[in-house]
Amino acid sequence: MNLVTASEEYNFTSFSNLPFYTKVNERLLDLAEVGKQRKIVDLGCGTGGITKLILERLQSAKDTVIYAVDHSTTALKAAAEEIGDRKDVAVNYVHSEVQNLTGAVKDKVDAVVYCNSIHYVPNKTELVDQIKDKLLPGGIFAFNTSFYEGSHPDDSLLFFRKWMMRSLRILKRDYGMTADKSAKVESRVQLKADDYIALVENAGFKVLVNDLNRVEVPHEGWHHISGFSDWIEGVMPGVPLDVGREALQKGLAQIWDEMNLKTIPRVWLSVSAAKA
Ligand SMILES: C[S@@+](CC[C@H](N)C(=O)[O-])C[C@H]1O[C@@H](n2cnc3c(N)ncnc32)[C@H](O)[C@@H]1O
């Protein structure tokens, strides 16, 4: 198994601390009523931003157990530092691929929360089956993503086209490099929102929340996401991270000014589904 050590410099922390992003995730947790359960898995927990939001919502911290699962050791370490020592609630940091959920978390749980990560997994059917097995009857599976076909509203497309073209031009002109499309990760092939709903329904879940929420993403959102390794590898495959980040951030600054932008919209999908 290839467990990942993410470079600290290119992690998700600066993006995940932005207020607009916190609101997006709070919306999922509140729609799914996360907080009343006793045993909760935070899948793909990253540096602990969602774990913190779950902790804030606990109706009774006593006897609550949270399993925070990620394959990045640096992300887990940052999460543990961020959350600190909590005497009243057990937070277990689990170093594992999400695809090994069955073996990684032995307990049956009341909720599995999976924020902004489901799009990474190539075999989603297999993972959703594991999540269902992991849940107690009545347990909920709550996830959100902004990586699906349709997450870019029409009025954001011109910005994206211009941003990518400009950044690729900067990459070539200033660094003498081009992106290698053949290096694009297969798992980034995107489903439609309806495909995600069908995925959970076909696994036998009852969908309780199916929410499409248009979010106005500010400049700093696009700026910080340009420093996240997964984003750089997705839009500039094969390009060294430091160079990709610089080209994307330079291109962004230029296009943002030229188009006189305040925000660019993106649509987040939030789903909550119950195990019968
Ligand atoms: C975009 S971040 C999301 C973090 C957090 N859930 C949030 O919503 O802010 C994705 C996280 O998923 C983790 N990840 C991606 N693929 C994974 C896999 N196959 N197994 C375990 N963790 C994975 C990455 O290490 C990263 O921490």
UniProtKB/TrEMBL annotation:
Keywords: Methyltransferase, Transferase
UniProt cross-references to SUPFAM superfamilies, sorted A to Z: S-adenosyl-L-methionine-dependent methyltransferases
GO BP term, example: methylation
Short name of one Pfam family: Methyltransf_12
Methyltransferase type domain boundaries: 41-141
Classification via CDD domains: AdoMet_MTases
GO molecular function, one term: methyltransferase activity
PANTHER family: TRANS-ACONITATE 2-METHYLTRANSFERASE (PTHR43861:SF1), TRANS-ACONITATE 2-METHYLTRANSFERASE-RELATED (PTHR43861)
Protein name: Methyltransferase
Annotated source species: Candidatus Lucifugimonas marina
